[in-house]
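The protein record passed on for reference:
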Amino acid sequence: MNYKVSVIDFFSAAHYLRKYNGKCENLHGHNWKIKVSFCGSNVNDIGMLIDFSVIKKYLNKILLIFDHKCINDFDPFDKINPTSENIAMFIFKKLKNLENDFVNVCEIEVWETDSSFVSISL
């Protein structure tokens, strides 16, 4: 049996895509939705894979980096495009700190709009 624990959070930010031939090369903003999931096959002695509050606290700390800013203005997005794919990988790398022998980050979803999102599954 495999457990999957997920948390959703939000932030608002602007960005623009370099070398993109279209309207997204202009500065524009989104109300981003982020879903992170942790997976594992065993729960701890109180029946949890990982505490929701631990994930929420850590995710919120990461998303504060983005909130109400122009994403292009800070590292690494001052060098790489702030695409949903690159933002998802950035969040994934930051969340790796919560992993242990029993639980791993298994999916990140980054939603730019209600109908457009990127998913990284591991």
The chain has a mean pLDDT of 96. Helices lie at 52-63, 84-95. Strands lie at 3-15, 28-40, 104-113, 116-121. The chain has one domain: 3-121.
